Amino acid sequence: MGWFQKKRKTAGRLVVSIQADVICIASIGNASVERPTVEIVATHALKGAQSASDLLAKIAKELRAEYDCINLLCGNEYQLLSVEAPNVPADELKTAIRWRLKDMLDFHIDDATIDVLDVPRDRNAGNRNHSMYAVAARNQLIEQRQALFSDARVSLRVIDIPEMAQRNIAKLFEPEGRGIAMLSFDAQGGLLTMTCDGELYLSRRIDIPFAQLGQDSEEERNAYYERVTLELQRSLDHFDRQYHTITLAKLLLAPLSGAAAELSAYLAGNLYLPVETLDLASVFDMDKTPELKSVEMQQRYFLVLGAALRREEAVL
Fold first, then answer.
1. Between the N and C ends of the chain, which has fewer C-beta atoms within 10 Å?
2. Tens digits of residue pLDDT in 75-120
3. Confidence band (pLDDT; 50, 70, 90) for 36?
4. 106 CB-near residues (< 8 Å, 6+ apart)
C-alpha cells in the first residue's frame, strides 16, 4: 500500500510507527539481499506535553541524516475490507470500490481516503469474479499525519498498514510453491495473514490483545488460547474452501514473550498444521542491533521491520 509517494534522494528509508505513548522506528539495509541488515531500531517515549511532531523532529535531528519515511498505521486507524473486484477499467477502479464501500464503513464515505490491494485470481476459477482488499482511513487522520511529518520537516513517502508489513516477513519464510499462515499479537490484538508467492490472500483480526495471552492464571490463559484456536480453525477452513489450489505448509507464530510464549505449544496440539515460532535472527543480520536477539525486542519491532522490507507496489 502507498497512499502518498514522492521521489527524492535520501540516506534510505525509515519506518515510523506512532503509538499511544511512544514512537518506534526501524531502518534496514538493502531489502533485496538474502539477509538484510537491520541498521536502526529504537523506541522514543512521548513525555508530558511533548507533541508527536516535536518528538519526530528530535528523532530526525539525532539521526543526522535525511530519510524517506514509511508511516506504519496502527490497527485502529483504518479499516481493511474484502470486496468483490468490480468489472471496470483500471482508471475507474477506485471510484467503483468507493461506491461499494459506502455502506460498509463506520464513517461516511465522503470522509474516507481509499486505496486498493488486489488478491490474485484462483487459476482454476475461470471467469469467476475475484476478491480485492480495500483500505479506508479517515481523511482527517491522513491529513493530520501529513501535517505531523511536514511540521517535523521529515519526508513522508508512504503510508502503510500492518497486513502488508506481515506479508513482507512471511515472504521470507515461504517454501517454494506453498503458502504459510502467520500470526502476530500486539497491544491491540492478533493479526492473522495467509500468503503464497509473496501475495496476501487472506487477513483476519483477532480481538485478543497480547496482554490477555500472558495472564498469570493458567485457566484464564487457556480460555484465550481456546478462542485464538477457534478463530484460526475457522479461518483455515475458509481459506481451504476459497483457495483449494494453495497448500499451506505451516503456521508461523511471531515472537511472543513471557507466559504468552506457551501459545505455540497449545496451537501445535490443536491444529492440523505444523506450528513454529519464528526467529527474526534467521532472516535478518542483527550485528548492528544486538538487542534484537531478545524475544521481547523482536516482538516489539516485528511489524516495523516488516514495513521496512517494503518494495514498491504496482499501482492499481
1. C
2. 999 999 999 988 888 888 888 999 899 889 989 999 999 999 989 8
3. very high
4. 79
What's the whole-model pTM score? Answer: 0.91
* 13-18: strand order across its sheet: 38-45, 22-28, 13-18, 68-72, 155-160
Long-range contacts of 212-216 (CB under 8 A, 24+ apart): 213/185, 213/256, 213/259, 213/260, 213/263, 214/257, 214/258, 214/259, 214/260, 215/259, 216/259
Is residue 314 pLDDT above 50, yes or no? no
Which residues does 138 contact at the CB level (< 8 Å), separation at least 6? 107, 111, 112, 113
Which residue(s) pair with 13 in the sheet? 68
Residue 296: band (very low, low, confident or very high) from pLDDT cuts 50, 70, 90: very high
Q: Average the pLDDT over each of 128-142, 262-276, 297-311 and give the range with the smallest value.
A: 128-142
| Residue 46: how many other CB atoms lie within 10 Å | 16
Cα separation, 118 vs 7, in Å, equals: 24
- Please spell the DSSP secondary structure of the chain, one letter per residue: --S-------S-EEEEEE-SSEEEEEEES-TTSSS-BEEEEEEEE--TT--HHHHHHHHHHHHTS--EEEEE--GGG-EEEEEEPPSS-GGGHHHHHHHHHTTTSSS-GGGEEEEEEE-PPPTTSTT---EEEEEEEEHHHHHHHHHHHHHTT-EEEEEE-HHHHHHHHHHHHPPTT-EEEEEEEETTEEEEEEEETTEEEEEEEE---HHHHT-SSHHHHHHHHHHHHHHHHHHHHHHHHH-TT--EEEEEEPP--GGGGGHHHHHHTT-SS-EEE--GGGTSB-TT-GGGGSHHHHHHHHHHHHHHT--PPPP-
Q: Which amino acid, one-letter code, is at 202?
A: L
Does position 223 have pLDDT exceeding 50, yes or no? yes
